[in-house]
Amino acid sequence: MSKVKQWAEDTAEKAVDQILNFYKNDTIKEEDAKEKILKVENVNLLGIDENNVDEVIMMTVNKTENA
Question: Which of 20, 32, 39, 53 is least enclosed by beta carbons within 10 angstroms?
């Protein structure tokens, strides 16, 4: 993978992680989290789209609860 593509993917992942942390801490609501995640630049590199963003949010919350 090229360095630029890797950088774009890493940047998108950090942004999504930050949004998910806000959601887990009840700083933002689920709908706001979905909207913000879908607006992250290059989020498509992570395989996240409008069809699976709910799954991504729920998987993250479930991992936290089971830890």
Answer: 39
Distances (CA, A) of 60 to 6, 14, 23, 27, 36: 22, 14, 10, 16, 16
Residue type (1 letter), 9:
E
Domain count, the chain: 1
**DSSP conformation letters of 5-66:** HHHHHHHHHHHHHHHHHHHHTTSS-HHHHHHHHHHSTTGGGGT--TTTHHHHHHHHHHHHHH
| Residue range of the domain that includes 49 | 3-66
